[in-house]
Amino acid sequence: MSKNKNNNKKSISLSDIVSRNIKNRRFKDYFTNGITSIFSFLCVLILALVIGYVLVEGSPYLTTNFITTNYAQSSVTLKTENDFVLGENRDYSDLMRYEDTVYSDKWGIGIKSKKDNDQNDIYYISEISVNSPFNNEMIRADDRTIFQVTPDFYINYLTVRTEEGTYVTVFGNDDGGAEAIISTLDQGIAIQDSDFKTLGGGIRSSLITTVILILFTIVFSLPLGVGGAIYLAYYAKNNRLTRILRSLVDMSSGIPSIIFGLVGAAIFIPIMSSMTGAVGGNVITGSLTLTLILLPTIVKTVEESIKAINPSLIQGSLALGASNFQTIFKIIIPNSLDGILNAAILSIGRAIGESAALVFAMGTLITATPSLTSSNTSLAVHIWYILSGEHPAYGQACAISIMILCVVLVLSIISKVIPILLNRRKKKGAKQNVKPIQK
Amino acid sequence: MLNLFKNKKKDVNSDVNNEMLSNDELPYSNEYPNEQVMFEVKNFNFYYDKKSKLALKDINLEIFKNKVTAFIGPSGCGKSTLLRCFDRMNELIQDSSYDGQILYKNKEIHSFNTIELRSKVGMVFQQPNPFPMSIYNNVSYGPKCQGLKDKKELDKIVLNSLKDVGLYDEVSDRLNISGSSLSGGQQQRLCIARCIAMSPDVILMDEPTSALDPIATQKIEELIKKLKEKYTIIIVTHNMQQAARISDYTAFFMLGELVEFNKTEEFFARPKNKKSEDYITGKFS
Fold first, then answer.
1. Separation in Å, CA of B218 to nearest CA in chain A
2. Is the CA virtual torsion A187, A192, A193, A198 positive or negative?
3. Domain ranges (residues) in chain A
4. pLDDT per position as a tens digit, A355-374
5. Residue B100: what pLDDT?
């Protein structure tokens, strides 16, 4: 009997189980769905926060000045050659007298304010009359040559000698502004000492260097990568050596870039210095190091797209008596163009974003003029540099980040658009102007 | 997987290195005294996978000038393999090897440069494979690869080739469009035109109509009959009726061996071999 009971208990029909478990299962569904949504929302939120922070912090700093000026300032110390004789009749009628400019009728100059790359007010001489002592009577304190002040220079400080023989100094960042500078100037009969500076803190040279770096990286890495991909896809025999080579290529895409930077610094910099006499890293060693980093990715990307080519096209070309070389350049490369362009975009993105390897291989010295044989910085290394100092400049770093993000955005859009354009071209047929043949 | 590396292994019988003959000097066959021999296959063996798989066993065969020779046989019998041996396309397959001889115009084919051989022996594939470029560029691809740059000469070649395959009237006003935008039958005729543009001696066809509809097939068959006035044609086909319709000679293969070679009418009317008879009557396929 007891056995029978047990049997009855165990024999529950499937529909019973379903109805019993339905609540439980529905709860589990809600739970997993909820967790997935929360995590994906979190991911988007974090991304939005990062981009939002960068945009908010960086956008005030992103000015034309910031992009067009160099990081380093140059300064010049000037004084007047002769004393300024009071009552001397100078004709300043050629001044334009703008409303936003403060003019000194004694010295014949106009002073204007603008923002520097740290968002501080700075004052510069915007207008100089032809007869003003500033026009051709100011000499450098060190070598006593005549120096013409241009609007690129802003006023750091001015020390004037008054008639009584006392000295009055005014600083460009004093609270009084342009008026204070003018009133101090007007007290004096001569400028005893002055310091003018050009704007600094900009990214002009880093920007140019980045462009050069990208160009060199593509020039070095793309032909090598495409060649390697063609070799792996069509030339390498399927033996153990090839398999080892292939897995090494796969593996090397996982090596941290700083190790490549180390190798680049240890190998390329000595070679470059022995060839060109350059000291330390430069754009070429940097792009060679980037090439090392990028090659595995390029080889993989291009090989995938080469393998997708219909082999009967290649056979057809060979069967028509085309050589391997002709087949590669007329069939294989044109038909894997999307992969090659994708690889190029990947390399551009990587060249812009890479910093760790370049700190070693290219150097961290921000110079005024981009040069192929001296240390320069790319934008990413520029960020690293300005954040690693005693007073990290977060705002400027964010401004550079905005530029990098924009480039990355544009690149990803291009990489989406390219396959569409290529497909359209394939459908239309090659755009070559072939005239209809006359009968 | 294709492999573009050249096979470094030299021909085992390379000591026989006769002079290549011109089209008029070709020797007459012993068995068929009216026919001039274009290709002569002598004791030819072909192996895949480092000699572990024998695909062709001791083939002896003659291909006659300006005739259509059909290779028939069940799947995997080696007919396509033999066809691809004539223009050495099999060398693209890794770990393949051969012994024996194939003489093209009395000269061993392995003593040719592949580029030279393939410009004389054209090939049409099973699937139409026009290059993804304009019709004009498709047809002028071969001559351009050989270094012909004269625009007028190229125009003439393209025009004549397209006319020969009967494609000119259909596409004369749109030579700019991509070759792959044509219909299947037109694509295959474009591939034949591309082949003719090289003015070859021989055209190898590897089941050229198996991917086409009956009307396109009929057009290609008519084209083949027309082309044999100028070219020697070898065609691999699965379709016995097709072989009977268009070919002059038929070679029947089975399991890598040449079972029977005969005039097509003879072959289908009075097969000499029991196996051929069984195949023709449909006892196996």
1. 23
2. positive
3. 73-198, 204-426
4. 889 988 888 888 877 788 78
5. 86
